[in-house]
Amino acid sequence: METWREKTLRWGFFALVVGAIEVVVRLNLVDRIFLTSPSLIAVAAWERLLSGDLIGLLMTTVYEAAIAFGIAVIVGLPAGFLLWKYPLFGRAYDELLGALFASPLILLYPIFLVIFGRGISAVIAMGCISGIIPIVLNTHQALRDVNQTYIKVGKSMRLTNGQTITYILFPAAWPIIMGGLKLGLTYTLISIIALEFLVEIGGIGTLASKGYYWFNTEELYLGVVGAIFLSMIFIYLLGKAESRLFSS
Amino acid sequence: MKNEKYRCRLFIYFLTSVMGLLFFTVPDSHGQLQTLKLAIPQKGLFDTTMPTLMADKMGFLKEAGIKPEIFWTSGGAETVRVVTVGSADIGISTGTESLVTAFMKGSPVRIISAQMTGSPELFWIVRADSPYRTIKDLDGKSIGFSRPGSSTHMILQLAVDHYKIKAKLVPVGGVPDSFTAVMTKQVDAGWSSPPSFLDRIDKGEIRIVFKAADLESIKDVTLRVNFVNASFYEKNAKLVKSYLNALKKAIDYMYQNPKETAALFAEINKFPLSVAEAGLKFFPKESVALTPVSRVDFSVDLALKLQMITKAPTEEELKKLIVAE
Amino acid sequence: MNRMTRPLLVQIGTVLFFMLIWEVIGKSKLLFEGIVPSIFEIMKAAWIQVSTGFIFPHLLVTVYEASAGFAFALFFGVTVGLLLGADPFLRKIFEPPILYFAATPKIILYPIFLMIFGAKFESKMAMAAVSGFFPIVINTAIAAANVNRIFIKVAKSVGASNFQTFTRVYMPSMLLPIFTGMRLGIGVSLVGAILGELKVSNAGLGFIIIQAFNYFRIPEMYASILLTFCFAAMVNLLMTLVLVRMRRFAQ
Question: What's the CA gap between C160 and C183, in Å, rounded?
């Protein structure tokens, strides 16, 4: 557990950096077009928050991520299960998927743009593919790691397949599956924000791109900070969810 | 032993970086010719690409003591950014409103000439099997433009206001994206610039639903300009003027020798000569004239309307911005 | 032998099946023509790009950007990682934010790099550096922290200087995790450089992909993507092989 001292030191360091930026900008040491003061960024953020603009952008990103992740889970979990059930396919696809996982899928995005058009579906498709692979891989791995004894015990108690899955397999495999879900959501979010930025289709990533192109430095940094902020919140929440699910 | 291996690897990476650095920063020794870095959008588009490439081909640039180094951009404010950070000295063919905005935000830019006045070339297409014949039929439908703040955006807004229709304006990206969006029914109409897809019109796959040339209000507006990095201009005003002279010579030459122009145009874009010749017809000489830079007020209004800037530039400021004749 | 080859057959079968579906979709009127070109056309375009040497200058640019960036990432990553690993206090403060930041899309920082470094190679190097930094620093920190305390004590007790402790105790035991971090780092550095090229660039693998996309030369776009992918995969494979040999060495 972290002590308060460590937390305050960390936040203190952060505040120091922000303060330094503020001072550097105010003293006109840096061209305003490169860097604006955090206070101005905060003002811009507040204005956009009030106009509902900022919320709209963040919501778009969250919405895309939710749908992409949802599809990834709905398809991924059963896929991982099937890979476990049919070990031949399991071994074959493990390697393929492992190779895909280590490769830069985001580079495939022009393909999605071409196939789905320049819209939200391309972003969701990209996010979905990024997220589904770790989910499938981890689910498969998790099920494989389940101690065979448990399954035998289930059989000896004459459980149906459904009951075996619900009461034995899933609880035992859950930790690693959860790890896969966490990875999947992280990768999904990263891909989605990256794509929003690269192609300007909406969401918080686009704010950064637009800010850059339209010489709106406040907007640019707002987009950058917003995107980082969103990622961090997601990871934080995921961590909390993980620990809560584990202690239950 | 393991230390050695690690150090070895580190050394190899270091060496590669150094070699790479040397490879790419070998100084340019070209004697009298001075390198001029140009940022040009949309390689292949007639009005952006042709004047400079023709000037190069005919030796006008060499005569002016210029060796061009071209950085191709995908258009719009990207071109401006490339110039303001110094990766290029001169920027070509960018929306006037983008320049005004950059200037008002403190970016070091100066407009050196007009690039496109009026819009004789842009047209909007629909699928041949759609029921839309004129722009009025697009009331309540979706129409594509390239990107927010671009000239296509501006022209479309004007058209919609002028013809009093309510249409949904959708950013679709470049000409090919626009075409795909129309054909896949993502939008009802999309923008295009000649000679792209003129052959498809001939084939009857698509149809022109309206042309920017029909809009009276923009006929004398300088929609796009050429510009320069302000600090570069302070030190090299003469060079910039020489470049503009070379461009002017090239444009004169282009219109006096249409066959050669069409040939070069076709070569750059790798399409057949007939298509190139058809495309040429869309660009009357007056539209690509380098002077005058007219109706800047129009672009200022647009920048204000789109909230790119919050207040209009004063006379003083405009004088500072526009160093064109 | 049979057990070994059967998964391979499944893999090959899957790839062939996928290619078949691709061709069918391409030929059918389902999607707009040109969006799904036939595999043959893609292969042809790829062959042209390689055989005419078209792709190599761009490949070189990307590799250059990625290597330079990676060099920085390596230097800073190892340095910071050592600091954090050796000092538990610093680690407690700074490791969580680093971990959080590691999971954000670095591409969002790209406009800042563009403004500072310009539109040419340096901004892509910065992308590569930032991307590669994180796997390296994280792995190094963990490695440094896990160096067996006893060895350190022994070294100190025989009067070893800081430098000697570093080279004789820290380095050997850290080599493997650092190399694992490097392997990841090289991969993401390469991707970072390419992502930068996809937005504002004049050369490189990302550049030719986006050019093909912008000019609707779709088979060429697929071809370039395919070649890029193969290259990235090759680099990954190479690093994995190196890692395997390192593992044997470490034993």
Answer: 32
- Suggest the residue from C107, C200, C240 to mutate for an interface test with chain A (most A CBs closer than 10 A): C107
Q: Please answer yes or no on whether A33 and B105 come within 8 Å at the CB atom.
A: yes
Q: Are B90 and B242 in contact (CB under 8 A)?
A: no
Type and span of the H or E element at B64:
none
Which of B103, B177, B182 to mutate to test binding with chain A, by most A CBs within 10 Å of its CB?
B177
pLDDT band per the 50, 70, 90 thresholds, residue B24: low
Kind and range of the H or E element at B34? strand B34-41
**Min CA distance, C22 vs chain B (Å)?**
19
- Who among A33, A117, A213 is closest to B77 (CB)? A213
End-to-end CA, chain B: 71
Helix (H) or strand (E) holding B114: strand B109-117
Provide, as residue numbers in chain C, all residues whose Cβ is less than 8 Å from the Cβ of A227. Answer: 104-105, 108
* C31 three-state secondary structure: coil
Number of CB pairs < 8 Å for B and C? 73
Question: Do B2 and C171 make contact, defined as CB atoms within 8 angstroms?
Answer: yes
Nearest CA-CA partner of B251 in B157, B141, B155, B116: B116
Q: What is the pTM of this model?
A: 0.82
What is d(CA A98, CA C227) in angstroms, rounded to the nearest whole number? 19
Q: What is the dihedral of CA C172, C64, B73, B285, to 10 degrees?
A: 180
- In whole angstroms, what is the distance from residue B55 CA to residue C174 CA? 60
CB contact under 8 A, A214 and B181: no
Q: Which residues of B touch C210 (CB under 8 A)?
A: 74
CA Rg value for chain B: 22
Which of B111, B179, B235 is closest to A117 using CA atoms? B179
Domains located in chain A, CATH noted: 35-243 (1.10.3720.10)
B78 and A31 within 8 Å at the Cβ level: the answer is: no
Q: How far is CA A43 from the centre of its chain?
A: 28
Find the length of chain B: 325
**Residue A6: which of C9, C93, C229 has the nearest Cβ?**
C93
Copy the structure tokens of residue C114: 């563009």
Nearest CA in chain A to B179: A117
Residue pLDDT, tens place only, B145-179: 887 667 787 788 888 888 888 888 887 777 777 88
Helix-helix angle C205-214:C218-250, to 10 degrees = 160
Q: Which of A119-128, A158-167, B306-315, C96-105 has the lowest mean pLDDT?
A: A158-167
Q: What is the pLDDT of residues C76-131, one digit of tens each?
A: 998 898 888 878 888 888 888 888 888 888 999 998 898 888 888 999 999 999 99
Chain B neighbors of C37, CB-CB under 8 A: none
pLDDT of residue A73: 93
**Is C189 within 8 Å of C129 (Cβ atoms)?**
yes
B275 half-sphere exposure, CB direction, 13 A CA radius = 20
Number of helical (H) and strand (E) elements in chain B, helices listed first? 13, 10
The answer as to CATH 2.60.40.10 being correct for domain C59-217 is: no
One-character DSSP codes across C194-218 = HHHHHHS-SSSHHHHHHHHHHTT-H
Catalogue the E-assigned strands of A134-200: none
**C-alpha R_g of chain A:** 22
Give how far C99 is from chain B: nearest CA, Å: 25
Three-state DSSP state, A43 = helix
By the CB < 8 Å criterion, does B175 face chain A? no
Do the beta carbons of residue C229 and residue C46 sit within 8 Å? no
- Facing C7 at nearest CB: one of A88, A106, A232: A88
Q: How far is C73 from C186, CA to CA, in rounded Å?
A: 9
How far is C-alpha A171 from the chain's CA centre?
A: 24
CA angle B262, B267, B273 (to 5 degrees): 45
